[in-house]
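Give me the fold.
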Amino acid sequence: MLFKYIVFDKNGKEVRGQIDTHSQESAIASLQGRGYIISSIKSIQDKGILNIVILGGVSQKEVVILSKQLSTLFEAQVSAIRIFRMMSEGQKNPILRDALVSIADDISDGSSVANAMKKHPKVFSSFFINMIAAGEESGKMSQTFQYLAEHMERSYELTSKVKGALVYPAFVVVVFVIVMYLMLTLVIPKISGMLADSGQELPAITKVVLAISDFLVNYGLIFIILSIVGGFLLVKYIRTAEGRKSYDRFKISLPLFKKLYKQLFISRVAGNFSMMLRAGVSMIKTIENTSKVVDNVIYEEILKKVSVDVGGGESLSKAFLKHPEFDQLFIKMVEVGEESGRLSDILETLSTFYEKEVLTTVARLITLIQPIMLTALGGGVGVLLSAILLPIYSVTSI
């Protein structure tokens, strides 16, 4: 439940805020535990539609920053309850602030840090929580939070660079469509009358362009509406289980981009495996948790099959060998890691290698896509100009 409170600190300064906890008594105990004198506290959980707040959630960047701060505080041997209370007071994001307050309250009630975090799956992934559980068992909470921060930061930067690489071609395509639409609906109609009055036989390319222009002038609005509705339905379909699977399969089979996506997902798998195995998480648990955060349905299903095979006594490398989505280099290196007993180190090396491969592939794609897009844009404009100039040239040459 969510409670709104007005309290006074030790200096008599008024403090207002919200706290998320299971009961009003727990909220009062939590506030008094921080040294506050309570003026008023009331539930704001049941206020109907007026209480709806549109929030953007918690970004990966915020979790990375939080992990770094938690690592520093645990290293300074500050108590867990005090750490999470301190962190909640400095948070601007209300979702993250309330989660940290709730975690602190649960810890004060005897819960472990991992179990307290497990109640907030929208903030902390299963991968994150299992790493924290392993850190608690080994007594290495500071190192665990630091490892998580570094791992998530690398993953965030890598994903951002891949998305950034796809922005340019998308921008060029949008510009191309807008330019062509404006020319076909504004420029061509003004010239079509003059060409029709000339009385000459028009070239085939001119007839095609005039027909497209006439269609867009008369039915352009309907076409745009249908395109928007179609896009909306496509997005809605992609959000279904079947649609997401089709979309994820399309990504790893798309010409030019399939190599990039495969490298990205393999890097993610290797990095997560390395982190969890190094923290002492069991192999089966590592595979299961990685399947939940790999962010691709196809690779998620593969990892679930690998988990079943490994649970049945098969080696990890042989389980991966059944799936062509993982290349031979990855499988051979995993086999070497298993034989040498240094699997986590090998996987970390693989993760770094594939991260570099992703960046190299991104750079190559940008170099390749730029001239292709510019040529397509220039070619489209050239076709329109040819359709206009050819009949005009024929008239003037008679």
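The mean pLDDT is 82.
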